[in-house]
Amino acid sequence: MRAILAAILALTPTIATSEHILGGADISNGEAVYAEACAACHGADLEGQPDWQTPGADGVMPAPPHDKAGHTWHHDSQLLFDYTKFGGQAALEARGVEGFTSGMPAFADTLSDADIRDVLGYIRSTWSDRVQAMQDMRSHQPGN
Ligand code: HEC
């Protein structure tokens, strides 16, 4: 399974140009997808779960906010995409982080790649220009 996933991830294009991976997202579709698929955990206003920085009794972290109080914008867009498509654990394992139990489910079976880009584009659209610019820099660093 891991080998298959690694092969799939290897096929995913890396960001070599200045074009943003989330550019051209359909923001209103993204907003609808967010309400349907993400708001239950990440909050209707992207505020995350209460005490999101404290692990639950099972050791699993709660869902973080996607607004600027959280750390979504600290990550490059490809990681955000992989996290949403393959789930947190698989996305981290593909980047060499083992032994982390993530509460973030995979949406590969329920959302198309376009829906995933739209919902991440919607989340990004709620950030200030400054935060968007900082996240752009993460996405455009070589190897990121
Ligand atoms: C069942 C609850 C649940 C649902 C539904 C859910 N998430 Fe998450 N998500 C989590 C948890 C818990 C984490 C934190 C886990 C971790 O740190 O690996 C997380 C983490 C993330 C992250 C990476 C952390 C970061 O920096 O923001 C992204 C991106 C993300 N979710 C996007 C989404 C999107 C987009 C949707 C809807 C398509 C969604 N999530 C739906 C629970 C959920």
Helix count, per DSSP? 6
Rg on CA atoms, Å: 15 Å
Tell me the distance between the termini: 24 Å
What profile does the largest beta sheet have? none
Number of DSSP E strands: 0
Chemical compounds bound to the protein: heme C
Question: What is the structural class?
Answer: mainly alpha
User: What share of residues are in beta strands?
Assistant: under 5%
Q: How helical, in percent, are the residues? A: 40-55%
What is the element string, with H for helices and E for strands?
A: HHHHHH
Gross geometry: globular
Query: Unreliable segments (pLDDT under 50, ≥5 consecutive)?
Result: 13-18
Roughly what is the average pLDDT, rounded to an integer? Answer: 87
Walk me through what this model shows.
- InterPro entries: Cyt_c-like_dom, Cytochrome_c-type_DH.
- Pfam families: Cytochrom_C.
- Keywords: Heme, Iron, Metal-binding.
- Residues 25-127 form the Cytochrome c domain.
- This is Cytochrome c.
- There is one protein chain.
- The chain is an all-alpha fold.
- It has a domain at 1-7 and 61-144.
- It contains six helices and no strands.
- The chain has helices at 2-11, 27-42, 77-86, 88-94, 113-125, 129-140.
- Helix 3 crosses helix 4 (88-94) and helix 3 (77-86) packs across helix 5 (113-125).
- The longest helix is centred in the first third of the chain and has 16 residues, at 27-42.
- The two termini are 24 Å apart.
- Heme C binds next to helix 2 and helix 3.
